[in-house]
Amino acid sequence: TGPVGAAVLGLTAYLTLGPGWAQSADRPGPQPSATSRWAALPSGWKPWQTTAYETAARGVRKAPEGTDGTIRGGPDCRVYEGAVYCGGYRTLPVRLDGRTGETVWRVGPAEAVTGEDASTFTILGVRDDAVLVGQEPDGEGTTRVLAFDTGTGERLWHRAVNDEWADVIFSGDIVVLPEGDGTSVTARSLRTGAERWTERLPARHSCGFTEAGNGLYAECIPDAGGTGEALVLELDRADGSTRRLTVPSAAGLLGALDGRLLFLDLTQDEDGNMLIGEDAPYARIRSVDPDTGAQSTTKLAEEYAGVVTLADGTLWFATSTGRVTAVSARTGRPLWQTSTSLEQPGEATYDPRARVVYLASASGRVGALDARKGTLLWETLPRAERSDTDWGATEVRLFEGALVAATPDGAVFSLDPAHPERKPHSG
User: Fold this and answer.
1) Which of 1, 147, 186, 226 has the fewest CB atoms nearer than 10 Å to its CB?
2) 3-state secondary structure 253-308
3) Would you state the torsion angle of the CA atoms of residues 393, 222, 123, 180, taken in this order, to the nearest 10 degrees?
4) CA torsion, ordered 110, 114, 120, 123, to nearest 10 deg
5) How do residues 225-272 score in pLDDT, each as one tens digit?
6) Sheet with 76-80, edge to edge strand ranges
7) 271-277: long-range contacts, CB 8 A cutoff, minimum separation 24
8) How far is CA 166 from the centre of its chain?
9) Angle at 366 (CA atoms; ends 363, 15), nearest 5 degrees
């Protein structure tokens, strides 16, 4: 996979009529009261829907297609200080007003340094008045990271990256890039691109970066000539110095809990090979002390599969069929399980204030579940004119009490979680 996190794995009338509310006996809607769990919305906000594609200015809503005729991925968005930043397949970075959905600026082809006919642009993060964007070409070509001014959309700097052995991560006040031959990473200033430090990666390993707790970690998996164990590097953001831990290759780093790193071990077959795939099952929780490397494991009450999210001491598993299971990250025991109508939901988004878990599907359907009991609070109808079974949904983003989500055909929309049935205006 490329470093920029490109998106992974017909309701025309609906786009005209606005978001619906799937009401039935098992699809209840929100019931606001004087003691509502829902936060107040920002001043001037109203539900909106727009498209991330430039052709929308001419009234066209058509998702870019790959050479095989399939939708190659919808927009991926980030929320920061009143704005929504999006990019996607053949979708140049755009800044939207988070309250109205109106386009503030859109990066032009010359500023994007495209160089190729088809690229995927992914928003890596926003901070220090800079939005960092990954550009990954479709097929052969140079992968780059670009920085744009949040106020004007003008390009600040760009660098070529080599993603053969490592990916890119936006972390704190730096962006970490694999450069040169790809066997080392360089941390650079978000605003200026100035070098902060460079650190070599373990030989014959492919590394992916993760933030866990307050730390930055690289989980490095051996290639065919490796040792069979994964190395986990804790990197100091200030100077790049590292501390090494060792875990089984089947373990995937999720985050931190109670000061320890939390991994999930994939289930293995009789020959010791990991079971992989869209709904590959997990067998146990692995807890690692980052200071000593001491490890303990907790067997899951049963094997759980799907896209997994760690938040507030809970693991949320969402399968491609829409089943959501909450599991205690401390004991491995199930807390609740709920079936939804969400198709291929993405990662769960946890709102600690409302104690609600939000998920979005590849069709643009959004669902809300009570984080403690698993009660399905509401679901919306789909929003996408076109969907693709190979495209995975992006996360729901929290915006000052409202929600922001996107669909594979390019729609970006914001809704009120207390009244998801409200019709949007055009951004």
Assistant:
1) 1
2) EEEEECCEEEEEEECECCCCCECCCCCCEEEEEEEECCCCCCEEEEEEEEEEECEE
3) -150
4) -50
5) 445 689 999 999 999 999 999 998 778 899 999 999 999 998 877 666
6) 76-80, 83-88, 91-97, 103-106
7) 274/249, 274/250
8) 18
9) 55
Q: What is the pLDDT of residue 405?
A: 95
The one-letter amino acid at 317: F
Nearest to 417 by CA among 373, 368, 370: 368
Bridging pattern class, strands 425-426 and 48-51: parallel
The parts of the chain modelled with pLDDT lower than 70 are: 1-35, 54-73, 112-117, 224-228, 270-278, 386-392
Q: Which two tokens stand for residue 418?
A: 């207390």
CATH classification code of 12-426 = 2.130.10.10
Q: What are the residue boundaries of the structural domains of the chain, listed by start?
A: 12-426
pLDDT of residue 3: 39
Q: What are phi and psi of 16, to 5 degrees?
A: -75, -40
Q: Name residue, tokens 């600690």.
A: 352
Question: What is the side-by-side strand order in the sheet with 376-379?
Answer: 349-351, 356-360, 366-370, 376-379
- Of 345, 366, 346, the residue nearest 419 (C-alpha): 366
Model confidence, pTM: 0.86
